[in-house]
Amino acid sequence: MSSNTSQDHPKKSLIDSLKTTVLGLLGKLPTAPPEEVAKWIGKGAILLDVRTKIEAGKNPVPGATNIPIRKLEDELSALPPNKPFVTFCLRGGRAERAKNLLQANGREVLNGGGYKNILKALEKN
């Protein structure tokens, strides 16, 4: 019996990833408003910054854990198993990909969008 993983359908996975990236760059992904992100933060969600180390260094978000999207799959086992996550990046595309990966691994996740949205949410807490 075969499962429907991205390894079984690499072309579909690549196309889905590209669609998500383009929608994120255009600001057309459904991301949570700052008020919703603030609620998740208030309930103990981990802020997961999936930008590159350079991006995260230029515009840091206090209290966030930075794991670039390209390394996230390899780092899944290092993440707390019973905590919710709020993913974010520059505009939301990589955060959506990270959300999908985490959800596929049984995690509770919210796409917080871009880092500016997260900073607004932190101001509300």
Give structural notes.
This protein has 125 residues and is an alpha/beta fold. The chain has a single domain (31-124), classed as Rhodanese-like domain (Oxidized Rhodanese, domain 1). It has 6 helices and 4 strands, in the order H-H-E-H-E-H-E-H-E-H. It has helices spanning 10-25, 34-42, 53-58, 69-75, 93-104, 115-124, and strands at 46-49, 65-66, 85-89, 109-114. It has a 4-stranded parallel β-sheet, sandwiched between helices. Helix 3 (53-58) links the parallel strand 1 (46-49) and strand 2. Helix 1 (10-25) packs across helix 5 (93-104) and helix 2 packs across helix 6. It starts with 9 loop residues before the first helix and ends with a helix. The relative contact order is 0.22.
State the name of the first-level CATH class: Alpha Beta
Spatial shape: globular
Query: Strand pairing plus helix content: what structural class?
Result: alpha/beta
H/E topology pattern: HHEHEHEHEH
Sketch the major β-sheet.
4 strands, parallel
CATH topology: Oxidized Rhodanese, domain 1
Q: Domain count, please report it.
A: 1
List the helices and strands and how they pair.
Layout lengths: L9 H16 L8 H9 L3 E4 L3 H6 L6 E2 L2 H7 L9 E5 L3 H12 L4 E6 H10 L1
Parallel strand pairs: 1-2, 1-3, 3-4
Helix pairs in contact: 1-5, 2-6
